[in-house]
Specification:
Number of domains: 4
Strand content: over 45%
Radius of gyration: 22 Å
Low-confidence stretches: none
Shape: globular
CATH topology of the largest domain: Porin
Number of strands: 35
Strand order of the largest sheet: 3-4-5-6-7-8-9-10
Distance between the termini: 27 Å
Oligomer: single chain
Helix content: under 10%
Mean pLDDT: 95
CATH architecture of the largest domain: Beta Barrel
Structural class: mainly beta
CATH class of the largest domain: Mainly Beta
Length: 492
Amino acid sequence: MYTAPAYPPPGGAISITASSADQSALPASANVIVQISNGSLAGSYAFSFAGKNSGTPYASAGSITFDGNGNITAGAEDGNAGAAASATITGGTYHVGVDGRGNATVQTSAGTETWQIAIRDNTKAFLMRADAGVTGSGTLYLQDPTKFAIASISGNYALHLSGPAAGQTGTAAIAAAFTATGGVVSAGKLDASQGTTASANLTATGAYTAPSSTTGRGTLTVVSTFGTQNLVYYLVDAARAVVVETDAGQILRGDVVKQPAGPFTLGSYAGGYAMVVSGANASSPVALGAVFTLDGAGAVTTGTADVNTNGTAQTQVAMSGTYAVIDATTGRAEASVTINGQARKFALYPEAGSVYTAIEIDGVQTTIGRAYLQASNVGSGSFSGTYAARLAGTDFVNSPGEQDAVGILVPNGGSALSGTLAINDNGTIVLNVPVSASYLGSGAGRLAGALTTTSTTLSSGQFVYYIVDATRALVMENDSARAQTGVMDKPF
């Protein structure tokens, strides 16, 4: 008896050999092809979204159960659109095609949601809302129900939150790190930025409740002089949870991720990094991508950045500066850099896997994202294979407002990229959009070139790809039509 894995192995080809125990018959073999299917989504998954519903910002997080045969059987969702609301997922259907793209109709006690899905593998997928008038994108993670216990949440964690501040212009973001033990949050540090006001290096404490045994749902409270953040979390496993803030004043969502072991020093940050952050200043969207080196002794060197401020693009400008570890326990560091002559300051919090949450704390604007330690010698040859992709940002021209996209992109490891996207341009949804792109390298794992599609919602743009390693690239659109950022992932 052969049971196929939940996701195809490399190449997808398997040779199966059967033999009789008593050797009364000759062995026989058959070649089979394992393909992506509905069976590639099976089990309970934690998810989160952020976007707009008829122009009103919202954020949500939840848990959803797929049965492996195209049916949605259970789940729960917490949302915030200026006021917190909870819903039960009562049913629905889904379909996953052999290329990893799919869709879901999710029935909840608050109404029906339509999702577009691009799966990296059976453990992770990217999501896009596909209801008329509703924008939004997010991520789906396979949950481990054996970890649905308060004892699983123990150790040092980093918190990453972003979204609109209700009733205010611009973006809000929070980054923090703390120790979690037996329901108590202690020894924390927190940075917050809202519009053009930053609150840096605050002390944080708090508390959390045990996760539900069915959905992994619990609550987390983080307290600092910035205020009290009341969060609902859905546990993925002992190393990650997705979260949504339920306070009326801030419509934020993000995740909590386990940190590596400390204490942290300047040397903990040494190496080459790829980073993308996004947000807004007082009135305009902002996106920034960069590759740079931290020398392990406090200097930021060999940096190249791309900046898009409300459609005004700066390409391959110089970036340099210094960094220091401020708190050895949480790993909180500060990097002061100059980008094309402008001073910028970021707080960094380490996450497991050589990843760092980066939040801007200079009061110029609010941006947040992640910096990833790059593999050595990354370049166009590292950019090859089938990637699940997610983009989110702002369209300035075609249908001004939020634009989201998910799909499958396939770079060839040389200079060309193809694929298919689902695009939601400010509530106008276009599916099955072919993509064609070219790119050239410019050193340090940065690739750039023109991307075109057959849809007017994303007819053409200038895209930059920051290569992390052979399985991940960060993405930024840097032109006057749109400011978008995103990520491309493929199986490890």
